[in-house]
Amino acid sequence: MPSTATATATATDTDTASWPRAPLAAVAAGCLAVACLSLAFRASIAFDPWTWLVWGREVAGWRLDTTGGPSWKPLPVLVTTLLAPLGDLAPTAWLLLARAMGLLAVVMTYRLAKRFAGPVAGVVAAALLVLAPDGGPRFLRTVAEGHSAPAEAAFALLAIESHLDDRHGRALMFATALALLRPEAWPFLLVYAAWLWWREPSRRVLVALMVALVPLLWFGGDWWGSGSPLHGADTAQVISGGLLDRLWSALDRVAKVIVAPAWVAAAFAVGRAIRRRERALPVLAGMAGAWAAVVVAMSVLLGYAALSRFLLPAGAVLCVLAGVGLVGLVRAVPRGAPRAAFVVVALLVSAPLVLPRVAGIPAQLQGVAERHRVERSLEEAVRRAGGRDAVTSCGTVVADRADLPQAVLAWKLDLALHDVHSTRRVRRGSRVVILRAGGREERRLQASEPADLVALGDSSHWSIVAVDCS
Q: Is 172 left (phi over 0), alpha (psi -120 to 50) or beta?
């Protein structure tokens, strides 16, 4: 999330300048290796990544159709297009890369906080990120299920570190990657590109290329897939209600993006830096605030969702500030008994606010495991029904939930997303209906007593029936 104000931002804590840092390539390789090990923890990919896998396969076959899914994002589809030749292994490959990026976000939070205040600050910052971006806390779940939000945080921190290292070209490319994931990053990319255009004329070709790439892929890709360059923007407008309700909801999510004690520590870090006339931390705070402001404004004025995971780039920066601030607070207290007493009191005050988030982690992981069981059960039901040919032979495929089952079925059955219908839209005619076993839609279908209803297959969570498929 770089901006022109970061042009003069440098690491100024003289007592941390000597901390060694591993090369970025080695860090990325380590994250990838740990992500490989994490595949032992099975999880269902989330709805959005499943749609990106479907779209990537369609791009590879020159038949992209972005109707019927979530809003378009170019970078994930570029990745899934490259993964498409892997066939059935593509979802696992996506999960591997997404988890590696989530781990990289944690490592980069550690590295950036360590840069300013040493390894203790880094550990604190990384731990706080794991407890973000809401009371859930959902960070581990977003990583486990292959969401793009952790990658967004990683790219933001990579851009910041690259700029602080005077690697401006690399910072620009990381900022571009972020802008291909989140529209909130567009203003940051434009400002940084303008500054780089003025500061380093030799990079103007790169600057022009990166800036042009963003609208080309965002609007061009969606235009190809839907017939409208603004289809994704229209799809993302999902929030109704009054302006004040939207504002309150968005601000509430901003307030919860880090735990309350972290806000205090971050404020201390920024205040101390301002008093010392240090620029880096206040600039980082301004960037985090600007990102949050854009998320809030897009929700209030345009009706876009201000989901907590959309705030992760800002949240990661706030975690860095909080780690630095906590170390600064401790160092501000005289050594010995006063410092020990301060630490004890701080822990006692913070514990009631932090521990509920720690206690919420098992529930998040249980939710991941349950979602995985539901997805595997869906695959089992399709197999028992006779596989793709049997399920699609009736003509219309209908699922009683139009989120995860829709995307999973589109991938497994090699269909476009809009070819997997919702029972809310399809009531009559020949169709294969895939229902939650024992759910409301199954009871409603049975009560309607269609002329021809044949059970094709079932599993612990799903029932598949053919309706009027004579």
A: alpha
186-220 per-position pLDDT tens digit: 999 999 999 999 999 999 999 999 999 999 999 99
The pTM (predicted TM-score) of the whole model is 0.93
Q: Which residues of 398-433 are buried (b: 16+ CB within 10 A; e: fewer)?
A: bbbbbebbbbbbbbbbebbbebbbbbeeeeeeebbb
Q: Please give the helix or strand (H or E) that residue 161 lies within, else none.
A: helix 149-164
Q: Is 7 exposed, middle or buried (0-12, 13-18, 19+ CB in 10 A)?
A: middle
Write phi, then psi, for 436 (nearest 5 degrees): -70, 125
Stretch (H or E) spanning 86: none
DSSP 28-80: HHHHHHHHHHHTTS--PPPHHHHHHHHHHHHHHTT----TTSS---HHHHHHH
- pLDDT tens digit string along 291-346? 999 999 999 998 888 899 999 999 999 999 999 999 999 999 999 999 999 999 99
